[in-house]
Write a sequence for this structure.
């Protein structure tokens, strides 16, 4: 395993950590996380321009994308930022977005200006989605904003070009704020399309002031209108068509937050789950003809089990029990219950927050970005959540993140306090990405917090478990391979499932390489890849503990 | 508290055995009834002796039997009402009290507070106010009256009038009841910390104050402290196994944990206190759906919607039930109704509280 040469103090701390953990008896060895952000020289802080006046969108700031923009084999980081309010301008460098180049030695270089992605002409930025929309082998960026959205084309030479106008992807109804986006190929034509989660109509002029007992607070979302999410079809040649109405997305009005992409019914077409804040959640099932049917009621994921539309925030869809069907995890605010829904054979979802103990574990936290991540490489995807209150009114408004460890795909236990002081940092956490920054096969975390530098949390990767990272390169399918479903069978016959997507959590975009923890097993009997094109590729006797690049076979 | 005071009120005791301990009285009345089974008076006295021994279900059976022979007997109705009241069945108790008072106006005084307490338990605050308001002036120094009246006013949303009653109680000194009432007002005004401080003080003043632990549980749930909330609801149920709020919330917590048998137990217990409560019936229907009894859930939700057609969540659940049963057209219809109701409700929200 490769590690960065910063391990002196790190390993000493880790040694102490393991001595403590060993005293706990049968508890498994757990990696922990160390924040290395301070080792790099960059100015970015998540700045929502909070000056006392509470503008509605200030709570949502600090999207993050993990992607390899220069194809050097190391994942880089991009952060979005706020704007001066009420002017809604990035009038000061402190509001600029930020691109950090991974030097491979545990430090990052701020290359934002050189790359041309400062975003100085943008308003308040929220989410970001990374994806190679033109199949040229370089990851592009879509940034969601209050004001116009922006598409940056990766020129392949370390710079980006704003192609929003000529792409046709910038249009949206006036004053709509877009908060998250996801790349996926909904018609399996080999080109990545884009779904954008919109929250409401808002401008500084229409901002409402809400107060109680003389104290201003962030208004309840219900004082703002619901809006449609938008779907853009990739026509090729760098052009997109807004198919929101034709696809059926335009019929459903919500307050979009996180987006999760998966083929929930196993028909070979990608479906879309959108977590809505205080509005029922949407599950758009792909009808395979360019349209979607909103099926949240049918699938039982529109509401929680008591029929309440909670403040759904981040969302992810992965298979947490390795039964071959992607499940759904969304988080919400303190006092509500985070939603874990178990996919019943691609027919509907069963509420699983109770039996999995997520209900008891989650009720005290206000979650934002989130996702399934196998942080300890035991083959079971755990539940991560970036937490922090909406407002700063209570004593415990700052909150630490949580990691609920998956126990045999059946239930979860809270191991947050055992993952190190840097993991337990209390703040107003917002965006997060899962990424293997040092290519050691253990997933690291990058987390933004309001008014703070982001944390770049390196996984100590020291429990001895094995792993495989798969980079998919589509040929007939989209080049990123987004939507490809992977089934890994270990030497002992254990089957693990995952799929290619960069969309998880809230406002964020994660490492597109597909991660498998293998536990103590080193042998992989087979790896089956079902590509979006329909091609099924099977690799036998794959060596573990490496990054495997798989190219889709020629048709 | 008002209940204890009322049970010891003169007049009611006239219906109770005259001497000896309850067990020997019960034996004596039973022996007498073996020889004289038609004696209404003996059966009434047996019921009273059983009630005094805490054997309320047996007492109810005796009163019922006596009433079958003397259906217009107000004393019997009053005692039957008291037995229902003590077993946490305010709906049945209220029915008996209402009938007793209509048959014997002289019982009205004794019945008023009991009946108001029942109405408050049932959430029928307007009826409680109508019953109590004529007595506000003559009973303005009566702590039990003030508490019931304040509860009804605040329950009905008449916060200013409720606050005046609280002030009146507190002018006589600190009071657990007043603190509990004030916590309701503070909770409504989004002053969570103030509400919790008041209810904790109420418990410190009187740890057996009905409803105080349940209120604390609600406040703790509101800040996500489910574990302490569970403890608080448990303490309430230890005092009164039939307390509505505690049973409802314990049911919801059990349902969240997917402990459906326990959830059903609590919900059914809550229904005992407030029969036909739409919220509890809705929760029970969702338990049916979650445990695979879609057909049972359908029946329950259809009945519920028949009585409460604006219950948006019930329409939403029924939509899912229909889809689950393969009745897509019905599901689409219910979904549209649910959405319309939710939209209407959302449109009425002025955003008046923090999240």
């Amino acid at each position: 395993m490769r590690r960065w040469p910063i391990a002196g103090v790190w390993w000493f701390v880790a040694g102490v950590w393991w001595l403590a953990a060993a005293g706990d008896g049968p508890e498994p060895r757990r990696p922990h996380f160390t924040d290395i952000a301070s080792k790099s020289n960059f100015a970015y802080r998540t700045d929502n321009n909070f000056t006392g006046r509470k503008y509605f969108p200030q709570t949502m700031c600090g999207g993050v994308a993990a992607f390899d923009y220069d194809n050097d084999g190391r994942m880089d980081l991009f952060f979005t930022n706020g704007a001066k309010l009420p002017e809604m301008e990035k009038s000061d460098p402190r509001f600029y977005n930020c691109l950090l180049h991974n030097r491979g030695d545990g430090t990052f270089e701020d290359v934002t200006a050189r790359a041309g992605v400062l975003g100085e002409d943008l308003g308040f930025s929220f989410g970001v989605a990374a994806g190679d929309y033109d199949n040229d082998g370089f990851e592009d960026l879509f940034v969601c904003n209050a004001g116009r959205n922006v598409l940056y084309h990766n020129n392949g030479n370390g710079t980006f070009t704003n192609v929003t106008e000529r792409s046709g992807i910038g249009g949206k109804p006036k004053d709509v704020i877009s908060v998250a986006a996801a790349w996926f190929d909904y018609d399996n034509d080999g080109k990545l399309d884009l779904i954008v989660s919109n929250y409401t109509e808002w401008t500084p002029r229409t901002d409402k002031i809400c107060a109680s007992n003389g104290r201003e607070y962030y208004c309840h979302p219900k004082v703002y209108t619901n809006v449609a999410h938008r779907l853009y079809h990739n026509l090729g040649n760098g052009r997109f068509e807004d198919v929101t109405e034709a696809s059926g997305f335009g019929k459903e009005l919500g307050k979009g937050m996180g987006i999760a992409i998966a083929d929930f019914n196993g028909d070979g077409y990608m479906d879309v789950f959108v977590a809505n804040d205080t509005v029922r959640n949407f599950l758009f099932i792909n009808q395979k003809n360019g349209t979607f049917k909103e099926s949240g009621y049918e699938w039982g994921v529109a509401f929680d089990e008591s029929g309440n539309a909670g403040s759904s925030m981040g969302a992810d869809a992965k298979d947490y029990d390795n039964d071959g069907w992607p499940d759904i995890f969304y988080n919400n605010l303190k006092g509500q219950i985070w939603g874990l829904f178990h996919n019943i054979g691609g027919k509907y979802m069963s509420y699983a927050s109770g039996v999995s103990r997520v209900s008891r574990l989650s009720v005290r936290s206000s979650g934002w970005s989130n996702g399934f991540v196998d942080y300890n490489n035991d083959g079971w995807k755990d539940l991560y959540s970036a937490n922090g209150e909406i407002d700063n009114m209570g004593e415990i408004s700052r909150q630490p993140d949580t990691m609920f460890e998956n126990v045999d795909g059946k239930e979860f236990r809270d191991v947050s306090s055992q993952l190190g002081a840097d993991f337990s940092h209390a703040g107003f956490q917002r965006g997060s990405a899962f990424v293997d920054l040092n290519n050691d096969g253990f997933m690291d975390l990058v987390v933004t917090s309001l008014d703070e530098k982001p944390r770049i949390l390196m996984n100590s990767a020291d429990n001895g478990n094995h792993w495989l990272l798969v980079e998919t390169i589509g040929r007939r399918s989209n080049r990123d391979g987004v939507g490809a479903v992977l089934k890994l069978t270990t030497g002992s016959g254990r089957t693990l499932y995952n799929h290619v997507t960069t969309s998880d959590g809230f406002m964020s975009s994660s490492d597109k390489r597909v991660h498998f923890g293998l536990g103590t097993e080193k042998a992989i009997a087979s790896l089956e890849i079902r590509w979006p094109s329909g091609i099924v590729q099977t690799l036998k006797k794959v060596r573990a503990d490496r990054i495997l690049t798989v190219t889709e076979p020629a048709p | 508290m008002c209940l204890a005071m009322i049970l010891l009120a003169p007049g009611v005791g006239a219906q109770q055995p005259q001497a000896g301990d309850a067990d020997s009285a019960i034996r004596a009345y039973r022996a007498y009834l073996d020889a004289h089974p038609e004696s209404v008076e003996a059966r009434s006295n047996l019921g009273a002796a059983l009630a005094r021994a805490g054997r309320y279900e047996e007492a109810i059976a005796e009163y019922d039997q006596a009433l079958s022979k003397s259906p217009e007997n107000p004393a019997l109705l009053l005692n039957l009402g008291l037995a229902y009241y003590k077993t946490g069945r305010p709906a049945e108790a209220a029915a008996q009290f209402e009938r007793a008072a209509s048959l014997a106006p002289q019982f009205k005084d004794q019945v008023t507070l009991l009946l108001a307490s029942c109405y408050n338990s049932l959430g029928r605050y307007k009826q409680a106010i109508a019953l109590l308001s004529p007595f506000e002036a003559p009973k303005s120094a009566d702590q039990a009256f003030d508490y019931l009246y304040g509860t009804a006013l605040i329950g009905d949303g008449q916060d200013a009038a409720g606050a005046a009653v609280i002030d009146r109680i507190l002018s006589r000194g600190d009071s657990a009841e007043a603190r509990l009432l004030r916590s309701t007002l503070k909770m409504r005004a989004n002053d969570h910390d103030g509400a919790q401080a008041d209810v904790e003080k109420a418990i410190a003043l009187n740890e057996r104050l009905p409803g105080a632990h349940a209120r604390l549980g609600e406040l703790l749930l509101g800040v996500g402290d489910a574990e302490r909330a569970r403890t608080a609801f448990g303490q309430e149920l230890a005092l009164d196994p039939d307390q509505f709020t505690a049973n409802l919330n314990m049911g919801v917590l059990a349902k969240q944990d997917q402990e459906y048998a326990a959830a059903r137990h609590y919900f059914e217990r809550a229904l005992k206190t407030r029969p036909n409560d739409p919220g509890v019936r809705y929760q029970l229907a969702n338990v049916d759906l979650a445990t695979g009894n879609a057909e049972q859930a359908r029946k329950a939700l259809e009945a519920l919607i028949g009585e409460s057609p604006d219950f948006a969540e019930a329409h939403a659940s029924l939509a899912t039930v229909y889809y689950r049963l393969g009745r897509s057209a019905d599901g689409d219809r219910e979904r549209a109704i649910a959405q319309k109701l939710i939209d209407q409700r959302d449109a009425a929200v002025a955003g008046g509280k923090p999240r």
